[in-house]
Amino acid sequence: MRMHHTTGRALTALALAVSLAGCATGPINTEDSAISLGKNLVLQSVPLGGMAVQALVSAGDGEARGSYRSKSQLFCQTNAQALLNIRERFAALCRRKGATFDGQFCLSPPWSDNVLFSAKLEYRSLGCHMLHVSEAVTVGSPDYLKFLVNEAGYEKAQVRADKLAERLAATADAHANAQAEQQAIQAREMARLELELPQLRKRGARVCQMASSNLFMYRGYVEDFTDEKLKIAVAEAFVPNAPGMRPTGFQPHTLWDPPIRWRLC
């Protein structure tokens, strides 16, 4: 019986150790360090003449804050290609870690608050930039998450989810409103047609139709009709509110068309 209890306690301790190990990254080697990558990229992004000063500025591994590290570097005389390279290299590092880079934060998985590192380029002045890099020593640390929210502009997963839900709801409302407006327009047109149809079915009735471009209007006369269509001699095209203006290329013609597309004028 004592052996059974001892074995149970050992298994519990082992499970706890495995669980804790899953929350920590352990020591960060230079190859996997976002801060080390940032230091190298800053050195590579400036002209050779500024390397000595830049090397001094880039010295050190940043500020250690227990569960995370951070480092900010000011560098000047760079170019657009070098800045693009910096972003691409951080994205590649994030992919190598099996995570997703959103342009600043490396997340694993992308819908969580497990931020592996943050890398942000900030323009200062006179062609200078500041590179802010931080990385987790312990992934999921509340201290690191607080730092990211307060200092790096990070939005927690719940905040992102709430904003996405709001955008989706707004899109759905806009779609519903547009659909309701279209239905109202159709209802008004059907009511108009019901009122005008007896007059539209009179030979010689003058009718008008706005062109699909909404730039000019057709005017013609009813020659004949059936239960479903009108035979219309389209005589002219003109610009509304400027009858003297005529679209080029128009030729009088005759067509059969549903009455809903025409109105009395």
What does it look like?
With 265 residues, the chain is of the alpha+beta class. It has 2 domains: 29-163, no CATH class; 186-264, SH3 type barrels. The protein has 6 helices and 11 strands. The protein has a 6-stranded antiparallel sheet, with helices on both faces. A hairpin with a 5-residue loop joins strand 5 and strand 6. Helix 2 packs antiparallel against helix 4. The protein is elongated, with a radius of gyration of 35 Å. Mean pLDDT is 84; it is low at 1-26.
Q: Averaged pLDDT, please?
A: 84
The main sheet orders its strands as 1-2-6-5-4-3
Q: How many angstroms separate the termini?
A: 102 Å
Biggest β-sheet strands, sense, barrel: 6 strands, antiparallel
Radius of gyration: 35 Å
Low-confidence stretches: 1-26
**Helix-residue proportion:** 40-55%
The number of domains is 2
Structural class: alpha+beta
Keywords:
alpha+beta, single chain, five-stranded antiparallel sheet, 265 residues, six-stranded antiparallel sheet, SH3 type barrels, disordered N terminus
